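#dry-run=false #mode=assembly
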Amino acid sequence: MQEHDLSWVRTEMALAEKAPARERGVVAWLRKNLMATPVDGILTLIGLVVVALIVPPILNWVLFSAQWTGADRAVCATVAQGGSQPEGWSGACWAFINAKFAQFMFGRYTDSERWRVILVAVMFVALLVPLMIPRVPRKGLNAILLFLVFPVIAFFLLVGGAFGLPYVETQLWGGLLVTLVLSTVGIAVSLPLGILLALGRRSRLPVVKAVCVIFIETVRGVPLVTVLFMASVMLPLFLPAGMTFDKFLRALIGVALFASAYMAEVIRGGLQAIPKGQYEGADSLGLTYWQKTGLIVLPQALKLVIPGIVNTFIGMFKDTSLVYIIGMFDLLGIVRQNFADATWASAQTPMSGLVFAGFVFWIFCFGMSRYSIYMERRLDTGHKR
Amino acid sequence: MASQDAFGRTAAPRSSVLNDPRVRGVLYQIVLFVLLVLFIYWIVGNTVDNLRRLNISSGFAFLNQRAGFDISQSLIAYTSDSRYSRALLVGLLNTLLVAAAGIVTATIIGFVVGIARLSNNWLIRKIALVYVEVFRNIPPLLVIFFWYFGVISVLPAARDSIALPFGAYLNQRGFYLPKAIWGDGAWLIPLGLALAIVMAVFVARRARQRQEATGQQFPVMWTNLGLIVGLPLLAYFAAGMPLSFDYPQKQTFNLTGGFAVTPEFLSLYLALSFYTASFIAEIVRAGILGVSKGQSEASFALGLRSGQALRLVVVPQAMRIVIPPLTSQYLNLTKNSSLAIAIGYPDLTAVGGTILNQSGQAIEIVAVWMVIYLGISLATSAFMNWFNAKMALVER
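#status=ok
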């Protein structure tokens, strides 16, 4: 073979040309995303008007006109309302939040014992965060500490009455403490109970199936307010005379039962999505029902429905605010209760309190939903159709 | 224990009947059933004891007693002399009213925001995203309080009511609208409307038959719009324009006349609409994304215009994905309307709660609640299932 003498051969790839000027930069982005068509341009204008109408007043109210410090309502009221602000002033009363912050967090929990609540919170965060970060090792030990040891310690720390800790009745609990205790216990109870109900609903045993279906459909058909009323009014009637339940515990039972019915339906969706071959494969390996369920079916089913499970958690977290209706003071309830406080009552107080409570709820719920998206991506093994 | 079958082989020895899954299943169920019966027996026994001790007579006879409390908003005649049963009916109607109004508004806002989430326009997309993320992540009760304590209760007092177009007024006591007063012969108008609807259904059916038989199209929409608007209008003029308005009058301390929407209703309605709309928006978005792109591309290839492609190809398929979760959102909205009790809107739960406090008939009231809410849920599900079946994919 004779070597061809090629005069010139390019040995390296040519660098990509830059995109044409009209396809890059801010102007191109604007043209593409805001003014692609005349209709688009009009929409952008409408959007700008909406933003201009909404955002500046909100910023002004939340930041620029807001009152951050003060001793009473005078800083948050106009002169005509008996305060010190000029006529027409409108701004958030963060001084109110500042003054009531401890109450919003702990309710009327005994002042000298609040370190116990803080300690429980610190322990909870210290155990939960490593469990949530996949890279941190020793997940087994961590989970045992969080799910078995922590609840016991937290119970004695919060309630007291043992180990020399004074007893703090749940009547005194309030604020974010109640919201978090109700929702974490609700989550911890509703997940296993929901799994059992979902399995029961798909059981081949007619009695088991009927019991589960009736429970799930009844609870899902009525509002949580009704369930809470039932827990607070009817539960005492169901128990023998003299035996009473703590009001807090009754609310807890109501919330947990309510959430487990919804959880059961979410998990059932996951169970139904597992192909029959998986069940048959497990059967042919000679696994028992519980081995099959625990080792083969549930790991796949739960992974599929993580978004649904987290949505149920978020729903339950939000629903804990309803205990206000049966006379308990969670975060929202205690904020609402403080509207009537004569020291702080002004036209701006309710909105300030609600925005604060909304922000706290939002942080928690938004955090949960982001974490669920993260986990969903991480666990996605590519089997999804 | 070994036995032989027809071929002389020895069957495997069975260790115990208990290992037979069928026997076990039956045993488990018997145990569960017995436990359940014992549990119910225990509860019923306790309840009967407690009721006897508290001197509460059970049964629904109390529903015929005089209610003795006023209800701030009622669709039917009600006074404090009415019976408990009447009060519950008022509550039920109020629940249905706020739920129906909320469902309509939430659907409209939800569809607009859901489509805006998929807009090509960056700004519109982000505004919709902020709306959805804000409302999805705060409790509905907080949204209700927001409207009630944060917005409506800081509106001006009646003296300085905000005047709106068409003679309406807005102040902290509610929203005042002109009230329509129908004169003699007004019954002709609903009659005209009913006639128009019947004719519209007939026209639509005939047009479809004709299109299937001959391929010719008929402008069904315009004809029916003309019928439904035209016939009642015709009836209105034929009856001699029997409509006048009672406008709210501004007095020194109050507004008189007109039709007042209470602040409680307004707060609840707005809160439920805005809250549920954020969920509906996500459902709509998921539904539209769920229709594969090939469908719209294929319809363009067939020469459909983008409006036609959307109406004839994409939306019918998206609706199949959208309807089941939409149903549960409607049910959630109806159930969330029970939060009315927190601001004193007299819905079924609030009225029931008042009766419960007055009479102490806890079990009966809770039973009434459960039956009615379950009934509403089942009726809504049944209707949406029917609608779903109508829209479902017809497969071979």
